[in-house]
Amino acid sequence: MTSYQMSLLNSEEISISRHFSLGERVVIYLGDCLDFLKSIPDESIQLIVTSPPYNIGKPYEKRLNLDVYLEQQKAVIAECVRVLLDTGSICWQTGNYVDKGYIVPLDTLLYPVFAQFGLRMCNRIIWHFEHGLHCNRRFSGRYETIAWFVKSDRYIFNLDPVRVPQKYPTKKHFKGKKIGQYSCNPLGKNPGDLWNIPNVKHNHVEKTDHPCQFPVELAERLVLSLSNKQDWVLDPFLGVGTTIIAAIRCGRKGAGSEIVPSYAQIAQHRIQQSIDGTLPTRPMGKPIYTPNSSHDFNLSPLLEEV
Predict the structure, then answer these.
(1) What whole-number distance in Å separates Cα of residue 25 and Cα of residue 42?
(2) Which of 79, 202, 212, 248 could be joined to 37 by an S-S link, Cβ 3.0–4.6 Å?
(3) CATH number, residue 146
């Protein structure tokens, strides 16, 4: 946690409200996201980060006809566009709808909906992870997408807080006026649109009872780059509170709605821990664990057979 975050938490008492008001700092609404969105004033939210249900029959969703599902998503997106500031961004994180073993990429189906409301896509970010369900009749899925849309050319984008280490930090210009000078940014490089961030599985420090929880690190990168301190960050499908946690940790205000009472309760507990500075999270930018040779599976007998 940064010194700014610590001073923020120490300088004022942050309470968790159940109803949205611009004077609040943290809001968790238990109920339908459309009801919650309708309580938010026009053009008051800087950033929306969410991962809606994928319509694949998880415990928290009812599997619907795909056309019905898309209409429901359209209604939510319409309200999100209404509450979004002109400088704002929407980050819609989705996976695939699976129908009898065949996949339909949801972001491609939702793109025309966002375009219909006049939003433009800045990036289609690929979130890559190493672990997940193993498939027998197709390659195992190891990525999801974050569709980043903006409302206008005035959108906020802060690159410096999310730069990653340069691959060749000592590389220098070899000709021209800058010959001999370092050619890369000393603060680091642009992380690009392929993000390799571990997903939240059973041994992850952030794991809760939610089956499709995304990591705080993922949300933090979006919050830091697409909003400023004290801005409102919203998640209409809050789950166990990850987006609000990222907002708090980065000095923003956070709001979200969750229809499942048990998840809302977990979210409130985790958010309170984040306010208190006691929530365990995987630090942003932490190198991905690589097993050493003593833990590697011994392949030599198999290789000898080949």
Answers:
(1) 18
(2) 79
(3) 3.40.50.150
Q: At what angle do helices 106-116 and 66-83 cross, to 10 degrees?
A: 50
Closest by CA to 148, choosing from 104, 58, 238, 84, is 84
Among 36, 14, 60, which Cα is nearest to 260's? Answer: 60
Relative to beta strand 143-150, strand 84-94 is antiparallel
- In tens, the pLDDT along 171-202 reads 888 888 888 777 788 899 999 999 998 887 77
Residue 41 CA, distance from chain mean position? 23
Domain count, the chain: 1
pTM for the structure as a whole: 0.85
Domain span at residue 246 reads 3-161+191-288
Do 9 and 275 meet the contact criterion of CB atoms below 8 Å apart?
yes
pLDDT tens-digit map of 120-151? 999 999 999 887 778 888 888 788 999 999 99
